[in-house]
Structure formats: structure tokens, C-alpha cells
């Protein structure tokens, strides 16, 4: 590969590692060979208890794939993507082969510019509502990747989602295996680990939103968390559910791509997201939501969207830990 191609591939992988992932596990790795980037799932980073099927892992990897696509296009290269190209290699989720030159449109460049700015929020939002026009555009962004973003406008439905989230959180917090898994991905204050949930990224004593959506207990009994003013807002924000018509591995990867596309568009307009996957990690609760609230579509992510002053830093592994380069043969 020439120097320019090497730089483009490096930039694409660098963009990929900024994708959101469950508990910031960053469950991906990349192999580069002959101007092709292979995205692989890192099963050692899968949540063995909370994500036994690997659904959340593949959603996370789908978000990383979205960033690779955006980066290459923004850098002026076409990209040919194959999802799940080899059924005998289950860890291989996608290949991205670099093509000829292209010119990115303004929106692609806008999304690319948000990749390192996007942050996951873990508290309440301000009272400023998300504009209806922006919500409609977020719906279109998800649809472009084969998923559906469903804003939850019914107060009763919001209460149901909040209650199920809190119930699942209570059950998981009493489960020793769930708790041990959370502890693995929780960072104490001052930690230098480039993974997991930093103590500075969530409030020490969060205000309850109405209705209240339970947050993960990363502190697990320790006085961790931040006391900064960015966590004083207490609005629930706009509740939305990302769904897919099917529930295959391909659907999960598509959901991840849709999620990242809509999050980047939201970020460009000052909107951030808080995620709530507790109820989706319990088979019977997820099926209840599918049957009773979501027109039989499969819920892949529950989120709240809103405005916040949160400017917390994010931690990511260096690409030297996730990238393997193979010489052409």
C-alpha cells in the first residue's frame, strides 16, 4: 500500500474506536490486508452474563463499522462493504474494501466531524425540548440504515419503559454474576484504563427524573462519580426506541450502524443520548416490549435524548491494540 492509503486506513480505524459500546467494552478488532479492512468481534470483551447471545456486542461493532464508512467517504475514498461475508467465520462481521476516489457531501463531512465529539450521557437533561424537526431527521437517519427510531410520545408508554428499566436494574443489581460483570467494567477515580465507565462520566448522586430511568450502578457501593454542575439537570428528555423488523446478527449490525448515524447527527445539533439496555438484557421483558409497545418489531436500544452541558472526556484504547496489519502475499 502507498503512504496515502495507509494514512486513510489508519484514520478509518481511528474513527471506528470512537464508536459507542456497551459499558465502553470496545469489543472489536481490525485486520488490514490488501487495501481491505476486516472488522472482527472480540468475544473476550462480550458481556457473558448480560449479553449471552452477543446482540449488544454486534450493535457496538455495527456502530464502529458506520464510523469506518463515514471516515473513508469523508477522506475521499469509495468503500465496498460486505456484512457477514463468511458464515464459517462467525467473528468476521464485515469487510470494507477501499475503492476509487469520491467526493463526500456536506452531511457526510458533518457526521464525520462529530465522531470524536459524541459522548454518552448518564444523567438527566435540561428542560429544553428536542425540536420536532430534528426528531424527524433522526428518524430518517435510522431508516437510511434499515432500522426504525420510534419516539415515545405517550406518557403512559414512557412510564412503562421507565418502570421496566428500573425493575430490570433492581433484579440485576441483586444478581451476583451481573454485579461482578459490572465491576469488571467500572473504573475507580483516577484510573488510567482506556476502557470501561470512567468515574467522571456519571453523577455521584444523580437527581431522579420524572419518570425515573434507572442508571447503571458503576460505583457499586463506592463513593465514586462526579459532583460537577453538568449533572444537575433532571429532565427525562425525549424517550425513543430503536427497533428492527428482524432479530438476526445482520439486524444487530444494521441497528448499530443506524444508532451511530443518528447519534452523530444529534451531536451536530447539540443533542446527546443516554442509553438504557437493562430491560433488553432480560428475554421476557424484551419480548413484552416487542409485543405490547413496539408493533412486534424487535427493540435494540432504549434511549433518552436531550440537551446537556456534559463535556466529560472519553477513554478509548489506542489503535495499536485493535489493529493488525498483514503484508500482501
Task: Describe this protein's structure.
The chain is α+β, with helices and mostly antiparallel strands and 329 residues long. It folds into 2 domains: 3-117 and 315-325, NADH Oxidase (3-Layer(aba) Sandwich), CATH 3.40.109.10; 132-307, NADH Oxidase (3-Layer(aba) Sandwich). It contains 8 helices and 9 strands. It has helices at 3-16, 55-74, 106-114, 132-143, 155-173, 176-184, 249-268, 283-292; strands at residues 28-33, 36-41, 77-83, 92-101, 148-151, 238-244, 271-275, 298-307, 323-325. The strands form 2 sheets. Strands 3-4-2-1-9 form a 5-stranded mixed beta sheet, with helices on one face. Strand 1 (28-33) and strand 2 form a beta hairpin. Helix 2 (55-74) packs across helix 3 (106-114) and helix 4 runs antiparallel to helix 7 (249-268). The longest helix is centred in the first third of the chain and has 20 residues, at 55-74. It is globular.
Number of domains: 2
Straight-line distance between termini: 12 Å
Can you name the CATH architecture of the largest domain? 3-Layer(aba) Sandwich
Helix content: 25-40%
User: Can you summarize the main beta sheet?
Assistant: 5 strands, mixed
H/E series, N to C? Answer: HEEHEEHHEHHEHEHEE
Number of extended strands: 9
Order of the strands making up the biggest sheet: 3-4-2-1-9
CATH homologous superfamily grouping of the largest domain? NADH Oxidase
Q: What structural category arises from helix and sheet content?
A: alpha+beta
CA-based shape: globular
Mean pLDDT: 93
Look at the structure and give the CATH class of the largest domain. Alpha Beta
CATH topology of the largest domain: NADH Oxidase
Domain Nitroreductase: 115-306
GO molecular function, one term: oxidoreductase activity
Region (Disordered): 188-208
Protein name: Nitroreductase domain-containing protein
Amino acid at each position: 500500500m502507498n503512504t496515502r492509503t495507509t494514512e486513510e486506513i489508519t484514520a478509518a480505524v481511528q474513527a471506528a474506536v470512537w464508536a459507542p459500546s456497551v459499558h465502553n467494552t470496545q469489543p472489536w478488532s481490525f485486520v488490514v490486508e490488501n487495501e481491505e479492512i476486516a472488522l472482527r468481534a472480540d468475544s473476550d470483551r462480550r458481556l457473558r452474563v448480560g449479553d449471552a447471545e452477543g446482540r449488544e456486542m454486534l450493535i457496538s461493532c455495527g456502530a464502529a463499522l458506520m464510523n469506518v464508512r463515514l471516515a473513508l467517504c469523508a477522506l475521499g475514498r469509495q468503500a465496498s462493504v460486505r456484512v457477514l461475508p463468511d458464515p464459517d467465520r462467525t467473528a468476521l462481521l464485515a469487510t470494507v474494501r477501499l475503492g476509487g476516489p469520491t467526493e463526500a457531501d456536506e452531511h457526510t463531512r458533518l457526521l464525520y466531524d462529530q465522531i470524536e465529539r459524541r459522548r454518552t450521557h448518564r444523567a438527566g437533561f435540561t428542560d429544553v425540548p428536542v425540536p420536532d424537526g430534528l426528531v424527524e431527521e433522526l428518524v430518517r437517519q435510522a431508516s437510511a440504515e434499515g432500522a426504525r427510531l420510534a419516539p415515545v410520545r405517550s406518557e403512559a408508554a414512557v412510564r412503562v419503559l421507565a418502570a421496566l428499566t428500573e425493575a430490570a436494574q433492581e433484579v440485576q443489581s441483586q444478581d451476583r454474576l451481573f454485579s461482578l460483570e459490572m465491576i469488571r467494567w467500572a473504573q475507580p477515580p483516577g484510573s488510567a484504563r482506556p476502557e470501561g465507565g470512567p468515574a467522571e462520566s456519571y453523577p455521584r448522586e444523580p437527581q431522579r427524573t420524572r419518570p425515573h430511568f434507572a442508571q447503571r450502578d458503576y460505583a457499586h457501593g463506592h463513593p465514586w462519580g462526579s459532583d460537577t454542575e453538568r449533572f444537575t439537570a433532571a429532565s427525562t428528555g425525549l424517550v425513543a426506541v430503536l427497533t428492527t423488523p428482524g432479530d438476526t446478527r445482520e439486524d444487530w449490525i444494521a441497528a448499530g450502524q443506524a444508532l451511530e448515524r443518528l447519534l452523530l447527527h444529534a451531536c451536530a445539533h447539540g443533542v446527546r443520548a443516554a442509553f438504557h439496555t437493562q430491560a433488553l438484557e432480560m428475554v421476557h421483558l424484551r419480548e413484552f416490549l416487542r409485543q405490547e409497545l413496539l408493533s412486534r418489531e424487535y427493540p435494540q436500544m432504549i434511549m433518552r435524548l436531550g440537551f446537556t452541558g456534559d463535556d466529560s472526556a472519553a477513554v478509548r484504547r489506542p489503535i495499536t491494540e485493535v489493529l493488525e496489519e498483514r503484508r500482501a502475499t
